[in-house]
Write a structure and sequence with these properties.
Layout lengths: L1 E7 L7 H9 L4 E6 L8 H8 L6 E4 L9 H14 L2 E4 L10 H34 L12 H12 L4 H8 L3 H8 L2
Parallel strand pairs: 1-2, 1-3, 3-4
Length: about 180
């Protein structure tokens, strides 16, 4: 079955043109919504994805109606593939998984996106490592200042229990243990 998906970003915009071209493309059912593509909650898209069946073909007027980024497009295309469904964009003829060439192009895009994610992960990891070497501290700021940390060390050396120190400092014992490592 050919199923269409039409989306506009605001209530001021009109779906008429998309509905017309999707109907002309042979879509028997068209999911339509007026919501920004930046929103993670798109109920009609989710409903369409839930109802996908093998050999269905999802048709959109343009790719940007389905996804705002290559990564999101590939995630959605992967859901189509897992359901055994196909995908086709009317304005971008290369985005057509009903053909061998279209499937190859989508596979190449998926490879490029994966390569890009790995590069980003590597750069982020390298940046984090270099920042740690420079003394940058990650995570939440310490609940205790240096004076309080010194007091904890002194109280421990005097034989005070962690539990009592935590009560005195109005904090949890795990905070005291965490600060012993510093």
């Amino acid at each position: 079955m050919k199923t269409g998906y039409a989306r506009v970003s605001t209530d001021d915009q009109d779906l008429t043109f998309q509905l017309q071209v999707l109907t002309e493309a042979g879509c028997k059912k068209i999911y339509q919504e007026k919501v920004s593509g930046a929103h993670t909650k798109r109920p009609e898209l989710e409903k369409m994805l839930e109802q996908l069946r093998e050999d269905d073909t999802i048709i959109v007027w343009r790719l940007d109606r389905l996804a705002r980024s290559t990564r999101k497009l590939l995630e959605i295309a992967d859901k189509f593939r897992n359901a055994g469904a196909h995908f086709r964009s009317l304005c971008e003829p290369w985005a057509d998984t009903t053909s061998h060439a279209g499937r190859m192009v989508m596979t190449v895009f998926a490879g490029i996106a994966e390569f890009e994610r790995e590069l980003i992960k590597e750069r982020t990891s390298t940046g984090r490592h270099l920042a740690k070497k420079r003394g940058v501290k990650f995570g939440r700021p310490s609940k205790l200042n240096q004076e309080q940390k010194n007091l904890i060390k002194r109280l421990l050396s005097e034989g005070e229990s962690i539990k009592n120190i935590a009560k005195t400092m109005n904090t949890h014992p795990s905070t005291i243990y965490r600060n012993l490592e510093i």
